[in-house]
Amino acid sequence: MGLTIGVDIGGTKIAAGVVDESGAILETSTVPTPPTPEGVVDAIAAAVRTVGAGSSAEAVGIGAAGYVDDKRATVLFAPNIKWRHEALKDKIEQRVGMSVVVENDANAAAWGEYRFGAGRGHDDVVCITLGTGLGGGIILGGRLHRGRFGVAGEFGHIRMVPDGLLCGCGSQGCWEQYASGRALVRYARQRAAADPDRARTLLELGDGTAEGIEGRHVSEAARAGDPVAVDSFRELARWAGAGLADLASLFDPSAFIVGGGVSDEGDLVLEPIRKSFRRWLVGARYRPHAQVVAARLGGRAGLVGAADLARQG
Amino acid sequence: MGLTIGVDIGGTKIAAGVVDESGAILETSTVPTPPTPEGVVDAIAAAVRTVGAGSSAEAVGIGAAGYVDDKRATVLFAPNIKWRHEALKDKIEQRVGMSVVVENDANAAAWGEYRFGAGRGHDDVVCITLGTGLGGGIILGGRLHRGRFGVAGEFGHIRMVPDGLLCGCGSQGCWEQYASGRALVRYARQRAAADPDRARTLLELGDGTAEGIEGRHVSEAARAGDPVAVDSFRELARWAGAGLADLASLFDPSAFIVGGGVSDEGDLVLEPIRKSFRRWLVGARYRPHAQVVAARLGGRAGLVGAADLARQG
Amino acid sequence: MGLTIGVDIGGTKIAAGVVDESGAILETSTVPTPPTPEGVVDAIAAAVRTVGAGSSAEAVGIGAAGYVDDKRATVLFAPNIKWRHEALKDKIEQRVGMSVVVENDANAAAWGEYRFGAGRGHDDVVCITLGTGLGGGIILGGRLHRGRFGVAGEFGHIRMVPDGLLCGCGSQGCWEQYASGRALVRYARQRAAADPDRARTLLELGDGTAEGIEGRHVSEAARAGDPVAVDSFRELARWAGAGLADLASLFDPSAFIVGGGVSDEGDLVLEPIRKSFRRWLVGARYRPHAQVVAARLGGRAGLVGAADLARQG
Amino acid sequence: MGLTIGVDIGGTKIAAGVVDESGAILETSTVPTPPTPEGVVDAIAAAVRTVGAGSSAEAVGIGAAGYVDDKRATVLFAPNIKWRHEALKDKIEQRVGMSVVVENDANAAAWGEYRFGAGRGHDDVVCITLGTGLGGGIILGGRLHRGRFGVAGEFGHIRMVPDGLLCGCGSQGCWEQYASGRALVRYARQRAAADPDRARTLLELGDGTAEGIEGRHVSEAARAGDPVAVDSFRELARWAGAGLADLASLFDPSAFIVGGGVSDEGDLVLEPIRKSFRRWLVGARYRPHAQVVAARLGGRAGLVGAADLARQG
């Protein structure tokens, strides 16, 4: 199969793109994300038709946040779009006349990195995406591990702290409460509230209040060496690295790929993650272990990965 | 391939057995575990030769506690036997004249359960062994997942409690410190020390002191309904179930198999594990999920699994 | 001094009462709690004038939720009423023509129990109030310990879980997030959501949903032996008892008094608290230690205590 | 009363000193600490007689590690010397012919700092001693708070981490497992084992192994700016400061005094303690709060405090 189309459903826009066998995006079409569940379905179909018109694309891969069933056809539960048992594959196939594969968006991004990004040359790769929350994807023996019911790789919700922070999922102490963009902001706000003098630079980037601090302020301040921002990144990194050490004990991959907006800061966050990973890795002296590397495809990983999964069939 | 030989290396004895294609053990030979690393190698060879003599067995599978390399040939690190980079495959092949496969013992046991025990009919199975410590094995898509470096499935050392109990591995808060036979005894001793009146029955089974309480006392007392022993099993089960909920988020298997000595108590421990698993399972309302079942092969799982891995080649 | 007036400021009503030297309430006046900070001041004055008219009461004690300064005159911070540096003593004295003492409400309740309730005969008493939140009061050597700045005894906000649940105070892992009426409801809801079958009885008491479970449902179900409700009380009790063990290491009182709405369930909650207290009490074998007893004055403790503090001057 | 004698019982030596009303030590006598419980009693008596001969000292105060009863006469339990219900007051009075007061050693040191050191001018002071373990003393309203049974102020054993590190006291997660000299060494060893390259300087100070790192190496390396040693001090400080924030919620003193060997490093450890204290202090914006200051008397605090307690009678 030659060209395929990948779809990435974001909170503000939906992107569809024609992707070739080398993972290059040849053309894209973008539409705003509609507010209703059915509107999103329509918008996906429209974006695919627009970008696909005139191309020889033969199949579509869609990455969606949420649980996707083991047939890669139905979104069981999508927290943001409010899909419940949404038969997305059938609906889109009927409207665009191409075969469709639906995949969890973090899985699609992991697949993209594995095939065309930081995971090239590895057979066993575990990706974590430090975005607003924390997502992940698992490639074992060159295959995407989806789990028996299609819901493997929900890294964000393993319990890091018994009786810990409440999570939107209803559980407590979930990893994404401690290692994600949202956690980063919480760390910065708590520190700024407790010690406004020390956080002066950071506070000035926002509206002057702890509550007004946003993620981009923390990143900007950290790049300028602000101690509160740097401490906040380190706190996030401690949790991220400790969780990767757990994943090493479980999956034993040859590489961990760290993506998502938080990872855009590069070594500012990667180095403390590696430090924490080494500290908590069990048996480090007696075993070889995975590298921790930055993702390479940035925001394109999901679209490219979804397209490639459609190509694999 | 018809018959193969499986070897199980225990703390007190080494067992070798001839196993057929249905997983039945036709004959066994047992020798005491020698105190020296090289002595163990000799004893394995002797046991294999004894049981293999006169049989048509063609290959040997050895289950060993510790890290085994990705070629299934060398034991990188065995905490109890003090093997370090022990070329076990080569040594045994030279002495017994059959091809040898070395596998982590918990992996071997998991494979045994998958092929001939509680895992039959499942493709994606995660086993935990609640013995003195906590071990595990992973079968995904019908294949044993060994990891890139051969050390996947070290469940006992994922971190359940930040800044938690010290573990022999050098880390803190490892799962096996909270869910294992050793943990069970600690729970019982702590409770008996704090409240000797309530623990009277349990204390009488030992030497009357909290320190004198052993695992078998806790089991016996729990079967008789002793409140301290029952509480101790429940505490273990809370941690075991919470950990399985994490593994469900990661691996999404169709079944969890719980084996090891602690699981011999059956529903006394399985039911509270299931209760805790349900409580902490993320997204339980929106997704199908794994069953939690008891292992069926008991202490034979490792030997039978190792023999079958040798057959698979 | 003979008669004094005590004032209790609740979320829905403000009660003022004339109290004699034996702690008996001779007469009361109750008004609804107004919605504005200044309205509450007016209502207090009105209630005091009403109940004091015709009595020989000479002084007023007011119990207020929040931080009260070391002069017992100004409410520094009252989270519910939104007082900030409210000069309550001066305002009420001007309006009612009697001398006024302002005290933290949990301190007032502790003093009431110490003088006329479960604390009689003890010199060193620590009270915890398990209401919606968790409050406390400390009597050492027969004196109320207020602290240098008047804000001692904020038991609800000691950290029980590092990186634990967010608290309204801005910190994390505060004791009241784990041992309070609000925590009890959370435990019940989480358990009901995870296992609706087991929680059937409890769910039927409310609107059938986990979110519809209220504190009174948990109490009613627990009294009827419902397993989910009983488990929820036990979970609360584990945290309450563990915290009392900490307080024993710090204050070493002769008695702990447990009050507040949760304690109305008596031994249903007191016994598991004692069990947990014994389990976590340090050095229990080598030292005498405090009793854990139920409060006796119920909802009157605050009013009676405030009145008596006014008498002490 | 004019001169009194203070006694400090250390692990290697016992010191007795004549102390005047200003807290000055006029003369001292030191003997090695004998290995047997009764030997220690003899040695105390000998040291007191030696230093007291020719002085006009009239009373003796003895600081002892362990639980001391509420009559300040009997050591209920001394973990190191193996005293159990040792009637120390009577025995020493018989041998030296002076009245004797026995006090917990951390209480004595706190009293010394309160009277003649960093606590002068404060009425409500809480001291923590970061030595091998973590001890403490409480002065409220100018009086040493001993508790109903004489065992208040056992700060080292409040629970900072549920299910945390085992403590010699039999409990888990005790503060002194996270904030003490012993904890500091553990942090450094763990970090050095996990990342020997980064810890090169620190490792070279000892025998080159992680296990060979001692407290003095960590201090020396930290002063030289070694990152692993500095991180280890910061980790200790995070726990120390968080615990002080709890004590502020409970006791609300005007000053915290931090003593013990760890505090000898001054601002290297005090500044991160203050930072952590501010971060976790509840309600910091709405209330005045305690200063965190370094102890001033060093190792003399216990002897001087014991002598002054004897003077107070």
TrEMBL record, chains A, B, C, D:
UniProt KW Transcription regulation keyword: no
GO cellular component term, pick one: cytoplasm
One Gene Ontology biological process: glycolytic process
Keyword check for Kinase: yes
Stored Pfam families: ROK
GO molecular function: ATP binding; glucokinase activity
EC id: 2.7.1.2
Main EC class the enzyme belongs to: transferase
Annotated InterPro entries: ATPase_NBD (IPR043129), ROK (IPR000600), ROK_cs (IPR049874), ROK_glcA (IPR004654)
UniProt keywords, alphabetically: ATP-binding, Kinase, Nucleotide-binding, Transferase
Similarity-based family: Belongs to the ROK (NagC/XylR) family.
Name of the featured protein: Glucokinase
